[in-house]
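Q: what sequence does this backbone want?
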């Protein structure tokens, strides 16, 4: 089979190219301007993609994440388009192009799969992400790395301090609206496993929000709503930012805690803010040198297992995470990973597993073996190809 891959710096991109080739497929690459061009209704880019599809006579097109411009080009050429989604929120999944019969959309979040099926999308499937355990096995930290990256508890991730600046108008809301949103953020932080942000945005509140923040349809061709955009792009990040900050504060009061983040200026007593990490060259060493790897999922990820959790397990790291339905579907709590129900619960469980090293290492080993056996790129690429065949 001839496969045209939309080539951009996606996590796992290098591995997927190799896997498709190893499976015997002929692979072609299209230099896809994911971060520098309009990837929605871009006629010029769409023509370029369609021209390349016809030039190489591709049987199918593949991309990490879903792009309407690719779907439109594939639809015009009457080929197949496989997209494997690892980001959420993903506003392009509200594009009207998702209803093209040529699409085969694989999503890491089962909630989004059910939502899209209810909307009438024909070919959408739940597919957890994969990890390359073989590559991580070769990255063995030495003594110097152990000193550099070592900590009781490590968190890798953004605190969203500088994201989505256009929501700074939040400070201009009237006191009632501001109080309502603050209370909503606080309530959502306290309740794990259920996301009710969008449902809690009443018509009255949305009217007040739209007076200060003009939330138009982001795609220009989509059916997303202003409430969805505000809930998933602002409120979800606001909740996650507060939860991560509160979690780090509570952990740092009792343990040696390190943060790797783009938020270099974030300071807390007892917290080592070590700045950014190269995801491929450095993050695996930081994971392996941590006793506990902390995951606080972005609230817009309703049920899915984040890429970070898969990679932590693939590195043989111990995962302490908030509850996620899909995480408990694919792995066994207490055997392969540990989840917490509140910040206080997370702090107590961290203390327990820091004292009980044998249990901690056994759980980390179980998670590693399960990822290596059941969540390989090779098997998932075969699943996707088999689905369209």
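A:
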């Amino acid at each position: 089979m001839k496969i045209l891959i939309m080539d951009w710096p996606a996590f796992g991109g290098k591995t997927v190219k190799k896997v498709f080739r190893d499976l015997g497929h002929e692979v072609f690459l299209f230099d896809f301007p994911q971060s520098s061009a309009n990837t929605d209704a871009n006629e010029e880019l769409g023509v370029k993609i369609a021209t390349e599809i016809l030039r190489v006579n591709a049987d199918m097109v593949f991309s990490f994440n879903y792009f309407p411009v690719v779907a439109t080009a594939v639809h015009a050429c009457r080929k197949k388009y496989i997209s494997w989604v690892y980001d959420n929120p993903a506003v392009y999944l509200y594009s009207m192009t998702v209803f093209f019969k040529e699409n085969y959309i694989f999503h890491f979040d089962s909630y989004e799969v059910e939502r899209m099926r209810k909307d009438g999308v024909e070919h959408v499937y739940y597919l957890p992400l994969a990890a390359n355990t073989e590559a991580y096995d070769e990255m063995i930290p030495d003594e110097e790395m152990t000193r550099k990256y070592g900590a009781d508890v490590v968190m890798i991730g953004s605190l969203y301090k500088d994201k989505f600046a256009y929501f700074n108008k939040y400070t201009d809301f009237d006191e009632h609206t501001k109080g309502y949103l603050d209370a909503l953020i606080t309530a959502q932080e306290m309740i794990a496993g259920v996301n009710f942000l969008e449902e809690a945005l009443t018509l009255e509140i949305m009217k007040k929000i739209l007076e200060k923040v003009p939330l138009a349809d982001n795609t220009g061709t989509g059916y997303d709503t202003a409430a969805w955009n505000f809930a998933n792009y602002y409120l979800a990040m606001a909740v996650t930012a507060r939860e991560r900050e509160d979690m780090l504060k509570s952990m740092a009061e009792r343990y040696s805690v390190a943060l790797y983040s783009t938020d270099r200026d974030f300071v807390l007593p007892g917290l080592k803010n070590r700045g950014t990490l190269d995801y491929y060259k450095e993050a695996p060493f930081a994971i392996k040198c941590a006793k506990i790897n902390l995951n606080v999922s972005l609230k817009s990820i309703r049920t899915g297992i984040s890429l970070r959790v898969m990679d932590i397990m693939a590195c043989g790291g111990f995962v302490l995470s908030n509850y996620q339905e899909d995480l408990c579907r694919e792995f066994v709590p207490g055997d392969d990973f540990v989840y917490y129900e509140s910040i206080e619960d997370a702090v107590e469980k961290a203390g327990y597993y820091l004292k009980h090293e044998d249990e901690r290492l056994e759980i980390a080993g179980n998670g590693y073996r399960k990822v290596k056996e059941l969540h390989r790129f090779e098997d998932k690429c075969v699943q996707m190809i088999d689905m369209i065949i």
